[in-house]
Write a structure and sequence with these properties.
Length: 187
């Protein structure tokens, strides 16, 4: 969900890339190398290239440079998954807030559908927050513990891709709605 993912790898030089796969963007820093990736997919593709190189060389001939880089890549992927978990937790909290309130099931379904639709048209964190308030005002004040963590990502347009965060939130809400609908049809 970051716009640009930077991986700092200490203890290696830029000339070490003569021996291994070269990422699209890299530069030498004081105590190592900084690798830059435009999105999680490019990072995962580079990680896969390193894995292929390890398999080709044989795992018994472990390359310390690749090992250091893979450790940094794994940390970056873990941070990305943390953002995804935060979005999922926020979606679940919104869903629970809507469906735990008194009222008719169809009214709650309509509120959730309106929420998803209103989120679709937002372009930044402030608009997103307003869309959520406008969509859920009938249910009372929205008090969620998860909001602060999510807000750190949705309001930070310099480091995080708001559109990707918004799309993930919408997808998580739609998945929860679909799961709920499917489970209630079985009853």
């Amino acid at each position: 969900m970051r716009i640009e993912i930077e991986v700092l790898v200490s203890g290696i030089d830029i000339k070490d890339f003569d021996q291994i796969a070269v990422p699209a963007f890299y530069e030498e820093i004081e105590d190592g190398v900084k690798l830059s990736f435009l999105g999680i997919e490019s990072l995962k593709n580079y990680q896969a290239e390193l894995l292929v190189a390890d398999e080709a060389a044989g795992f018994e001939q472990r390359n310390e440079i690749r090992a250091k880089i893979k450790k940094g890549l794994k940390k970056a992927i873990s941070e990305h998954l943390g953002v995804m978990d935060s979005i999922r937790a926020y979606a679940e909290a919104l869903f629970t807030f809507i469906y735990d309130r008194e009222g008719h099931r169809e009214d709650k379904k309509q509120i959730l559908n309106n929420l998803i639709e209103n989120i679709t048209f937002t372009e930044n964190g402030l608009e997103l927050e307003e869309a959520i308030k406008d969509s859920t005002y009938e249910l009372g004040p929205l008090v969620l513990n998860y909001r602060l963590t999510f807000k750190n990502y949705s309001f930070n347009n310099l480091e995080f891709d708001f559109l990707a965060i918004k799309e993930q939130l919408i997808a998580d809400l739609e998945n929860l709605r679909n799961e709920f609908t499917a489970n209630n049809k079985k009853v």
